[in-house]
UniProtKB/TrEMBL annotation:
Gene3D superfamilies: Histidine kinase-like ATPase, C-terminal domain. It comes from Actinacidiphila paucisporea. Transmembrane segments: none annotated. This is Anti-sigma regulatory factor (Ser/Thr protein kinase). It comes from the Bacteria.
Length: 138
C-alpha cells in the first residue's frame, strides 16, 4: 500500500496589510514541534515578505481579492507557495538603491531559500514558491 502524503496546509486571506501578520502566525502554528528555531524564523520571514508583495503588487483590496498560501513538507524541504491574482512577475533587484525604503524583500528571500520560482497559475495570477531544506537527521 502506498504511503499517504502529508496534506498541505492551505489558507486564504483578504488582500489587506493586516493579513501579513495573520499569514505568518498561521504558518508558524502549522509547523510541527521540534523544528530548529532558524527554520521557524526563516519561514516566518519568507511568509511575511511574499504575502506583503502579493498584497502590494498582485492583488487589489478594493476588489475583494485574496492571497492564498500553501505550506507543505516534501523531498526534504518545507515549501511555501503564495498566490495572487496579479499578472506581474516578481524579480529580484540585485542592486537596490540605498535610498529606497522597499525593494529588498525578494533579494532576502533569494538569499534564504534553497530554491524559489514564480509559477504562472492556469487561469489568473501567479504563485511564488520558496523551499527551505529541512535539517539532516543526525
Amino acid at each position: 500500500m502506498p504511503e499517504i502524503p502529508v496534506v498541505p496546509a492551505l489558507w486564504r486571506f483578504p488582500a489587506h496589510p493586516a493579513s501579513v501578520g495573520r499569514a505568518r502566525h498561521a504558518v508558524m502554528e502549522a509547523l510541527p514541534y521540534g523544528l530548529p528555531p532558524q527554520l521557524h524564523a526563516e519561514l516566518g520571514f519568507i511568509t511575511s515578505e511574499l504575502v506583503t508583495n502579493a498584497i502590494r503588487h498582485g492583488a487589489c483590496a478594493d476588489a475583494d481579492e485574496v492571497v492564498e498560501l500553501v505550506l507543505w513538507p516534501t523531498d526534504g524541504h518545507y515549501w511555501l507557495a503564495v498566490s495572487d491574482p496579479g499578472p506581474g512577475k516578481p524579480a529580484v533587484d540585485h542592486r537596490p538603491s540605498p535610498d529606497t525604503e522597499s525593494g529588498r524583500g525578494l533579494l532576502l528571500v533569494d538569499a534564504l531559500a534553497d530554491a524559489w520560482a514564480v509559477v504562472p497559475r492556469p487561469y489568473r495570477g501567479k504563485s511564488v514558491v520558496a523551499g527551505l531544506a529541512l535539517p539532516s537527521p543526525g
